[in-house]
Amino acid sequence: MEVLSGLGVGLNAVRAEVFRVKPQAALPAAAKHAGDAAAEKLTLRNAISAVSAHLAELSEKAGETSAEIFEALTMLLEDEDLFDTAAAEIEAGWNAGTAFIAAVDSLEEIFAGDDAFMERLVDLKDLAKRVAAHIAGVSLGLDLPSSGRFVIVGEDFSPADTAQFTDAVVGVITIKGGPTSHTAIICRSKSIPAVVSCAQAEGLLDGMEVLVDPVGDRVVVGGDDTMITKAISFVAKSLDPIIPVRANIGSLEDSIQAATTAANGVGLFRTELLYLSENTVPSRQKQTKAYTEILSAAPEGPIVVRTIDAGSDKPVPFLHMPHEENPALGIRGYRLITDHRDFLVDQLVSLEAARVASGREVWVMAPMIATAQEALDFAELARSSGSYKVGIMVETPSIAMALGDLSGKLDFISVGTNDLSQYLFAADRMNAGLGALLNPWQPALIRMLAKIAQDSEAAGVSSGVCGESASDPAFAVVLAGLGFKSVSASRSQVGAVRSALSSVTLEQAQQVAKVALSSNNAENCKAAVLDALAKIAQE
Ligand code: PEP
Ligand code: MG
Predict the structure, then answer these.
(1) Which residues sit with their C-beta closer than 6 Å to ligand 1?
(2) Domain final position from 178, 200, 227
(3) Which residues form the PEP-utilising enzyme C-terminal domain (predicted)?
(4) 120 and 82 share a domain?
(5) Residue 40 contacts residue 96 (beta carbons within 8 Å)
(6) The domain spanning residue 19 has which CATH number?
(7) Active site residues
């Protein structure tokens, strides 16, 4: 029996057949046609009609507002001048697909400066690719199973890919992607058992039966239920956990689901996840509606909303972010303020309207803050936009070293351990080969967390943790012992994290944190903490 090791996500195992997800087909390179320009033009006409017909289908399913956008797009796609420009390219020898993409690209120069048209052009470029794909007979969509029960296996899945997971996806294995990749985050929140960063999964083939065993950090080919690794179980000794456990959400569905758990409010609402496939800037009205629904549905307690964290692994189409050599070190999170201040203001204003409409307690925070000055600027902007508690995420080592400067200026901080690990260890969170450095049990991360908790306390700023590390029940006990005042976990983990934090006293959690702080490597650290927790359970 073959055992493949990786990094487990979740506490439940699943057994099902493998479904290999093929990499999305690439468009063929620009090419000339064989000489028959008339036939090529006919091919182009037919492909445009086919894509228009598909748009009409989508338009019927969409609401009234979106239907108008689809109609406008269809008009642009079927525009005769555009066809003539493409026809001229065909006369010059280019094949139909290449000619149409070139014709649409030429609009960029003609309409430069017309912002409204530029927004439409992004959609039109996407449609041009669909026309070319239709001609080449390739599919640009992700090929996922729609019925049955499958463990899907792929390189890694982008946030847009994971949004397409159907109920037929009962387990996920990725060859790349680390413990903090978006595949891991989404699987944890949807309670889909997963093993990520599993390089040996390259050899898995359609139809093989596999056991996805996340607690054992492994996949067993042909494995059965007797091989499932059991998670350590905590026995709650008090009704309430020693610190509040909130839930992480990214959509209305998440919010509704989180309300069915015992979560004390929401500790991280990732607003960018609403906009990963939006090509046009959502209006204040549209944002207010979405936020009001999500706030109203959320579990009782405060709701911590993060302003847009676009860029790097979370592209948001309407922000038209430039290509960067090192996107994780580039323009992302709060740094969008330079080019997209209007959007940030729109978001804060819409959120204030949603706060009033829902009657909920809202806290707002900005992601990827690197300096105290950025934190102060954000606090000023947020306080001038609404009546919420204001905070920042601590995700960069630089801000972790500057918390003393925030005394009296901020209400709270929330540590994003996913990015903090990435920047502390200089280890790309998307790089499967670096998963070990992104392990939250790394002593250097735990020592930095201890400093953050202490410095926040000294500055009179409340501190919490909302990165994936807080979804690990044993790690959550360490966080409470280090001095954090709340944790926020993936909604599927709220129950387990609450049990762990109800099974110890604060003093016991502090002893456990001491054990973690005295370790000098990740494996020993986790083992020593689990050992200490097992002893406490017997007391
Ligand atoms: C983090 O970095 O830990 C975090 C919570 O933010 P995200 O995973 O969305 O980058
Ligand atoms: Mg982050």
Answers:
(1) 268, 270, 309, 395, 416-419, 466-467
(2) 227
(3) 243-504
(4) yes
(5) yes
(6) 3.50.30.10
(7) 182, 466
